[in-house]
Design a protein that fits this description.
The protein has one domain: Rossmann fold. The protein is 22% helix and 35% strand. The chain contains three helices and nine strands. β5 (92-100), α3 and β6 (120-128) form a beta-alpha-beta unit. α1 (11-28) crosses α2. Bound molecules: inosinic acid and magnesium ion (MG). Residues 42, 74, 98-106, 150-152, 156 line the site of inosinic acid.
């Protein structure tokens, strides 16, 4: 099997868009502190770049979840592999994700985080594939809406590789 990555969104395009979202978040959270919750591992690259562009006070925490079921189709039942270090109560929480596909993982996760009584809970995603949605999720900040293609880079992986690409690419698989 050959692997080829075709650029979908260049590094410049992604950086420009992250700056715009950072500006918007800085406005929306004026006078507040925003608590970014990164969903590992995919969200890490986006979260770091986004955090650098937010001008209100920022605190960060990380969590790692795995969804039960097969690798290709998420079941929506999420197991916490690594929980947050700090409680969320009273905080203005912004969940940072790499991509929303079916929405199963996120809708489950958001319900779970809501129970921890944050002052507010919003969602920011670098990529959104709206045509794939099975469960409705309210997204507050979206980097790019993309068609139903399997993408890698900027935190997104194919078999744990390609996360480090500084751009978003379409994964093309071919026969040798
Ligand atoms: P869902 O929204 O519950 O279906 O799952 C979203 C998760 O599936 C994301 O956090 C990614 O880990 C993974 N995923 C979905 N689409 C892609 C893709 O195009 N490339 C890489 N990972 C993807
Ligand atoms: Mg993910």
């Amino acid at each position: 099997m050959t692997e080829n990555v075709k650029v979908m969104l260049s590094e410049e395009e992604v950086d420009k868009r992250i700056q715009e979202i950072g500006d918007q978040i800085s406005k929306d959270y004026a006078g507040k502190q925003v608590h970014l919750v990164c969903v590992l591992k995919g969200g890490a690259f986006f979260m770091v770049e986004l955090a650098k562009r937010i001008t209100v006070p920022v605190s960060l925490d990380f969590m790692s979840v795995s969804s039960y079921g097969s690798d290709t189709k998420s079941s929506g039942v999420v197991k916490i592999v690594k929980d947050l270090d700090e409680p969320l109560n009273g905080k203005d929480v912004l969940v940072v994700e790499d991509i929303i596909d079916s929405g199963r993982t996120l809708s489950y996760l958001l319900e779970m985080l809501k129970d921890r009584k944050p002052a507010s809970l919003k969602l920011c995603t670098l990529l959104d594939k709206p045509s794939r949605r099975v469960i409705d999720v309210d997204v507050d900040y979206t980097g790019f809406q993309i068609p139903d293609e399997f993408v890698v880079g900027y935190g997104l992986d194919y078999d744990q590789r390609y996360r480090n690409l500084p751009y978003i690419g379409i994964m093309e698989l071919g026969e040798e």
